[in-house]
Specification:
2 copies of one chain form a homodimer. Chain A has about 230 residues and is mainly alpha-helical. The first copy, chain A, has helices at about 35-50, 60-65, 80-105, 110-125, 125-140, 145-150, 155-165, 170-190, 200-205, 205-220. Chain A folds into 2 domains: about 15-75, Arc Repressor Mutant, subunit A (Orthogonal Bundle); about 80-220, Tetracycline Repressor, domain 2. Chain A is globular and about 55 Å long. The structure holds a DNA duplex (30 and 30 nucleotides).
Chain lengths: ~230, ~230
DNA sequence: GCACGTATCTAAGCGGTGTCAAGATCATCT
DNA sequence: AGATGATCTTGACACCGCTTAGATACGTGC
């Protein structure tokens, strides 16, 4: 494409406001968005944070992106695929948070706990996003691709277990440990907000301390061995 | 009320077919149902089992019960309240399954594992119901009343821990242990179907053995103590 | 520099949903 | 018998996911 034909929809670069164009006067709105799929995902996350997962409709996302209700169908097969794209972003960010937590831990045993804490903290800070993330996974009964990639939570747990002395050839033991760790983190993530636990949280000095206590209580890789 | 005024809508007792009346000729259908709220919950469970949680709409429930779309609003404030009623039934049944599993265990340590297995088995056999159960709990960030009642999962875990020697006065330790157990069971319940775990399940001889292995791996109350 | 194919978007509409307001019907109490 | 309150229906509204048909703009080939 020649530079002479610079298209006017780039006057406001799409990344500047996350793809929102609804504020523009109608006749200044370009027919082609330019980067709609990314803008739709961004709009989805905004709605998610502002109004919760139940408000996340395809039409609302299109509205937020300043586009007709049918436009998203040219970028996503259906609503589920859009949600999966939003969820994928979440899994990536969760993976990054976990990597950071692991890097800051002094030894593998501590790393396992810190990974769990980072997991729960992420889920508690982004509850709507976390629900979307898990819903698409549970529906398909598969771990999301972004969650089992190398630089993801799952991978970091595996590496940490090996660093802590576990034999990577013992696939069964590795898997059982990873599953146990993952399940506990997921459970804590979904239940940590329950009002019944407020007293304990206060006694321990806040929710993060509470989470740490629960995870340590389970004690994945804390030196104990199983009676089997 | 006098017995002389026996109402004709009792000709077919509501429990006989679970409240379904759609099969009756239209002009034989009584204007008043007689036991609609119970029938609606029963209809909800039928739809849940037959078509999954996404098909569980208020209108579908009303249809299944042979009643107009607005009728449920005279018995439930909104859709959420109907779902909560369905969920409550689920929590009761889960409590019963847990009680049974606990009763069949030789000692407290085994009981904890069996309780967990019963929990996961229930969730895996009634996946749609289980999702409804947890959704209404997570939305309100409270344990469902039916789940924390005396003869419920939560109560049975507590009693088992005490029977195993834990000091009930140590509220914090009790709660942390219960939470850890509950979280693990919930996590396993939601992830046990993941395709990635198929090999391990086969190696262990089925899904129930797999669940047992994971739960034992966490080892709530299996004689080990925490490094804390 | 222009035409054409294709990607992108809009408009209109279908059947479905949750929810509400108004009216019909029935059980019961006086 | 008449009034009252509970229960159910009818009809409507706004929103939803999704489809089809047509409009528009981009970029490539000439």
């Amino acid at each position: 494409m020649t530079q002479s034909a610079v298209s006017f929809q780039r006057v406001v670069p799409p990344s500047a406001d996350g793809g929102r164009k609804a504020a523009l006067p109608i006749d200044e709105r370009p027919y082609h968005h330019g980067d709609l799929s990314r803008a739709l995902v961004a709009a989805g996350r905004r709605i998610l944070e502002a109004e919760g997962p139940d408000a996340l409709s395809l039409r609302a996302v299109a509205r937020e992106a300043g586009v007709s209700p049918a436009a998203p169908y040219h970028h996503f097969k259906d609503k589920g695929e859009l949600l999966a794209a939003v969820a994928a972003e979440g899994w990536d960010e969760l993976g990054a948070a976990i990597a950071k937590a692991r890097a800051g831990a002094p030894d593998p045993a501590a790393a396992i706990t810190e990974i769990g804490v980072a997991y729960v903290v992420f889920a508690r800070r982004n509850p709507a996003l976390y629900r979307i993330m898990y819903r698409s996974a549970c529906d398909k009964e598969t771990m999301p691709d972004h969650a089992k990639a190398e630089d993801s939570g799952w991978g970091h747990v595996a590496e940490t277990l090996v660093a802590g002395g576990m034999d990577p050839a013992d696939v069964q033991e590795m898997l059982l440990t990873q599953i146990a760790a993952w399940c506990t983190a997921h459970g804590v993530a979904e239940m940590a907000g329950f009002k019944e636990f407020e007293p304990v949280k206060e006694a321990l000095g806040g929710e993060e301390a509470f989470v740490r206590a629960v995870l340590r209580h389970v004690g994945i890789m804390s030196g104990r061995r199983n009676a089997n």
